[in-house]
Amino acid sequence: MDVSPWPPELADHYRAQGLWRGETFDDMLRSRGGDPATGPRIAVVDAARRLTYADLDDRVSRLAAGLAALGIRPDDRVLLQIPNQVAFVEAVFAVFRVRAIPVFGLPAHREAELVGIARSACAVAIISPRAHEGFDHRALAEAVAAQVDSVEHLVDVDDLESLFAEPVDHGRADPSELAFLQLSGGSTGVPKLIPRTHDDYLYSVRRSNEICGVTADTVYLAALPVAHNFPMSSPGILGALSAGGTVALAASPTPSVAWELVERERVTMTGLVPPLARLWTETAERGAAFDISSLDTIQVGGARCPDELARRIGPALGVTLQQVFGMAEGLVCYTRLDDPIDEICTTQGRPMSDADQLRVVDEHGEPVDVGPGFLETQGPYTIRGYWAGAGKDSFAADGWYRTGDVVELNEYGNLVVRGRGGDRVNRGGEKVSAEQLEEQLLAHPGVWDAIVVAVPDPYLGERTCAYVIATDPAEPPSLAVIRRFVRDAGLAEWKLPDSVKVVEEFPETGVGKVSRKKLRAILAG
Ligand code: J2J
């Protein structure tokens, strides 16, 4: 299945080292469900439901049989758009069990994104709720199906039981083949889908568990949208399930909702993006209304955590902080739980695996010895190419992944993230492709030209500013008009521009290209 393979000598090496073990996600659940020790333990809970490993395994078998009866075949791509609830885990593992390929959409995605994803993946089915948080997902799924020919089945995640059928044997997936498609944070109109294999992803999950101390006693709270790579695998819900621990899924990451579950389920660990970590910290500093004393580790990642915030998290929440710098394409760095407190609070950690290879280069690809540069990497769980050959520029000629992140290595061996090259805005962990937003803005008749840049923001880290040259300078479009236009074009809410600045011309670089750098400097100044 169209996965850019690792060079054979590297693949052999990863196998010989025991990093790739030939296990599939389905093997993992079966061995937990069928084990008399773990079978009766709680695997997954949300506000309304709880399932043991044995129940989960059984329900997954019935649902898988139902999906097969619908016509879903091995290697078919199934687009999931499921909020944080037990049914997410049931659906993902049922798709694995029929040897089909989950594609991880987010509940916040809207028509433009889902059409792009479904089309790129050639999805045959969409599994989503009828409605969620006042939004009609059924109508959205129907709109996608009307535009993407491959989509034949719309499955209602609130009524999975209606599909349940007598379990059948679906055979076993090849662990070295494509397991699922994850989404790249900075995707444009044509999304970059990330092909991950059972072997590579499960290695990253097991290794993450070792570093993060995940055991059968861990209760992991998925506070962020669970389809994100971070709560999914670093070590996330898959880490907890692979260790025989418990996954608790919060409908919302806000303290008022998430902490109720923390108290009830005695949650030990969770992962947050910096703005949420700030909200949790400030709420706890004012006095928590729930007993959150079971928490022992809070991870922060997805965007740069300000050092000042990092220092407050541990004391306020009574936890050990762990910084996580990761990417759905692969490489994940962690501060170690026993690193000196200064390293934990001021760095983004180091790679999880000795087999991760890193190099820091300048804009011409030449090695940088001291000081910051662009991070490139290869390793046992970092992809060699996107699905269907998209985004080739993101890979160096020798197959290393060019992360686009500007980093510096400190004397302790930890990385400090200094920023990013390119045109991606990191809005508190949610990434916005400037190019995608610019394309949408250009479609507005009142916009003659547009450039989107990141502006520093005390809460989100960065927010978006759209520089616009108006078609009619006497009547430039307002922020409200532009936001409505982008929303109507079917983009997720987090991609709507935070501010608009109308200008007469854009500053240029020496070679006549518009200079984003100068635009950022104008805004900062
Ligand atoms: C600065 N920038 C960071 C950090 C990610 C674990 C954790 C996060 C992700 C993730 C993930 C950062 N400081 N601590 O997949 O498994 C920015 C970088 C990176 C991009 C990847 C995981 N942690 N970033 O955020 O695929 O720019 O994955 O290249 O969504 O987020 O985004 P994404």
Amount of helix: 25-40%
Q: Which fold name is given in CATH as the topology of the domain at 424-524?
A: GMP Synthetase, Chain A, domain 3
Poorly predicted parts: none
Number of E strands: 26
Largest sheet: 9 strands, mixed
Radius of gyration: 23 Å
Figure out the total of helices: 16
Q: Give the CATH superfamily of the domain at 424-524.
A: ANL, C-terminal domain
In angstroms, what separates the terminal alpha carbons? 50 Å
The CATH class name of the domain at 424-524 reads Alpha Beta
Q: How would you write the strand order of the largest sheet?
A: 2-1-12-11-13-14-15-16-17
Structural class, from helix and strand content? alpha/beta
Bound molecules: ligand J2J
Shape: globular
In terms of DSSP E residues, the strand content is 15-25%
Instruction: Tell me what the CATH architecture of the domain at 424-524 is.
Output: 2-Layer Sandwich
Mean pLDDT: 94
List the helices and strands and how they pair.
Layout: H1 8-16, H2 25-33, E1 42-45, E2 50-52, H3 53-70, E3 77-80, H4 86-97, E4 101-104, H5 111-121, E5 123-128, E6 131-132, E7 135-136, H6 137-147, E8 153-156, E9 178-183, E10 193-197, H7 198-212, E11 219-222, H8 229-233, H9 236-243, E12 246-249, H10 255-265, E13 269-272, H11 274-286, E14 297-301, H12 307-317, E15 320-327, E16 330-334, H13 341-346, E17 350-351, E18 357-361, E19 373-378, E20 401-409, E21 415-420, E22 424-427, E23 430-433, H14 434-442, E24 447-457, E25 461-470, H15 479-488, E26 499-502, H16 516-524
Parallel strand pairs: 1-12, 3-4, 3-5, 5-8, 11-12, 11-13, 13-14, 14-15, 25-26
Antiparallel strand pairs: 1-2, 6-7, 9-10, 15-16, 16-17, 18-19, 19-20, 20-21, 22-23, 24-25
